[in-house]
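Translate sequence into structure tokens.
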Amino acid sequence: MRKSTFRAGRWLPQEPDVLEAWLHRFRARAETRDEPYHSSVRAFADLIENDPVVRMYMHEMVAQVPRTSRYRAHHLKSVEQMLVLINSVLTYAPEFEDDDMVGCPLNAIFDWSMGTPAGFAAFRYPPINVALKAIMAQWCEYLTGEASLHVLNTSARGWKSKRARERVGIDEFEYDPKDPHWGFSSWNDFFTRRFKPDARPVASPDDPKAIVSPCEATPYRIARDVRREAEFWIKGQPYSLRDMLAGQPAVDHFVGGVVWQAFLSAFNYHRWHSPVGGTILETRLVEGTYFSESESEGEDPAGPNNSQAYLAQVAARAIIHIRADDPAIGEMVVMPIGMGEISSCVIDEEIKPGARVEKGQELGYFQYGGSTLCCIFRPGAIDSFALAALPDPEHAHPPLIRVNALLARAPE
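Result follows.
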């Protein structure tokens, strides 16, 4: 067995051999079905054919092999094979695997090509990201349809199996145990399931200085004295507020402040909640990249996971700007960030400028998935972080902070 690769959130298998086995099965599935290209894949194929820069990037990233590759063979043999595999994803719903889940099939297909010199460039190129967005939107249509429910079954790879029920903790969620599909209308409906009332009580609901976790996630990083502008692409990936907030005029309010970041697991809750009571000042959806990773991480299969701070500046994301009731906290930002195909940020309709939100109130959700999320605070807004909010990089399986649990306290 070759050296394993730590992948935060367990969206892809830890072991290269396991990922290779999945890709072998998926290639067989795609080749057996021999489906005509879906419209978004046909458009991508036409882009590759007609745009010489795109054609160069696509062919080069398939041809190049990372010098540090831990795999025995190319994951992709040709651009044509890549298109066939992408096309097959559009009628695929993720199956359950205990520790070897492939929750991100497009990430699996692109796994090593993302970490090649051509791949680094390709996945930053705007026309490619426009094409990928259309592909993922078409996949989302399938995942929100009834046909995607077939994976909610009791087989070993079904989400109703005994082990899947345990990993998901389904009894904490709202579902109908008597219904063949637990009362869900689609895979996305299952994936964005809600907790039962009181399953995640809001910590200190009457204390405005108690800030709660906006998501069910594993703490990734805390950065203090964050700069207005920084070289976010270098080793260490410092946060650059101007780029994170995509030119938002309020950026200067947060210079010298604190960023807290956490990543979501494939098996957990995928909705986000307000860390504070207050007023919505602004909401935005920011276009960005989908499979870009930081070159400073090198040619490593864990590059996307290790690039989470970098992604806060370049990936598709939502920005929710809130003025907290407590003046010591003041303005803050909740920023859900997409990674790979986990990039559809949906802000709830009632969350709009001028709206009142209570601490712990839902703000929105990731439609298929959830990847990483930042909270941005002004200087002096945080007195201390709760123990559960502190990153634990030395732990093989770092513990989660639960949504609505105490995240931090503002100064008295």
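Note: The two ends are 54 Å apart (CA to CA).
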